[in-house]
Amino acid sequence: MKFIPGKIADVILIEPDVFGDHRGFFMETWQRKTFAENGIDYDFVQDNHSKSAHGILRGLHYQIKQPQGKLVRVVSGAVFDVAVDMRHCSRTFGQWVGYELSAENKKMLWVPPGFAHGFYVMSDSAEFVYKCTDYYAPEYERSVIWNDPELNIDWPLVNDKEPVLSEKDAAAPNFSGAERYNTLFFNQQ
Predict the structure, then answer these.
(1) Which positions ≥6 away from 121 have C-beta within 8 Å?
(2) Regions in the chain scoring below 50 on pLDDT
(3) Which residues are catalytic?
């Protein structure tokens, strides 16, 4: 398994070893020891699975209290997955990274606590699964508008067509008006 830090070192792209033949494939998607040896030493408390149609954009979401780290992957279809650093005291505050995750490339992404997260569905549909380090707490959920001009995220919109958003995501504030974290999050295990 390869752990590849990007321009924001805390967000890690993971390329699992995939073993396949005429019968199909096998891959390990999480193993505590291997992940801990590579800086991802968290307890996961919740697994989620969502399905979305082509052109859906979910996010950018985060929880201002009970921040969630997320280990994300796609099991059907393809998405463009984005993490935005919301930690005010971080040297990468306000920066974003994005990666294509697909059932075909089998890549995973570690989005640590302190980041807003979202994804855009590029295929006909996509099924997205992720492990969380803390429980969903709707009273603490916050959002940042997907097309914030300050963030300037380069979403790969198919045919430059506006994405389909939930009412909540369409009404999200700009980055400059969004709540932010005043601390860095370190694993305290």
Answers:
(1) 52, 53, 54, 55, 56, 57, 77, 78, 79
(2) 187-189
(3) 61, 130
> What is the CATH number for 11?
2.60.120.10
Would residue 145 count as lying in a domain? yes
- What is the spatial distance between Cα 88 and Cα 54, in angstroms, rounded to a whole number? 33
The C-alpha atoms of residue 129 and residue 97 are separated, in whole angstroms, by 19
Domain coverage including residue 88: 2-18+27-175
Q: Are 169 and 59 in contact (CB under 8 A)?
A: yes
180 domain-assigned: no
- pTM, full prediction: 0.93
| CA–CA dist 54, 126 (Å, integer) | 8
Q: Are 44 and 135 in contact (CB under 8 A)?
A: no
Domain total in the chain:
1
